[in-house]
Amino acid sequence: MKKFAVFSIGEQEFGIDIFKVIEILNPPRIFTIPDLPDFLSGVINLRGELIPLLDLRKRFNIQSRPDRERLIIVMVGGQKVGLHIDSVKDVIDFTEEEVTAPPGIFKGFKPEYLLGLGRKGERVIILLNTDSVLTAEEKIALKKTGKKMEPTVEKVSGKTSQKQ
Question: Which domains does the chain have, with CATH numbers?
């Protein structure tokens, strides 16, 4: 059995391995940073740490519902990333029998984004592969963005670094 945090974007339900989830929160103030890659919508200051944000609605071409927005902070390629979602549903245990391989063609989704489809009763939940939600090029751009953001962290958090 494997546990997945289940959330919705539009009318569709998605699941992420619960061990990849760090935190779920109402979005605080979102900052824009110059030269931010197109796939990022901004950053948030989470207890002094700047977290880049990826809008899954744009990634998967799903109608936006900003009136219900939440953020789910996950690990992607060894880095914390915030994902825009509409709402958190629950945590579900899936057995191996309840998870099927992703179909070769699935509207709006590259196969590498998916771990599979989870079935619970009448529900079909798209299980995301968080390590593949970003391409290799996007992960490199994210690391570069992180380096650019370091001086901004000090301004936003009010902290100053002192080298000794």
Answer: 2-157 (2.40.50.180)
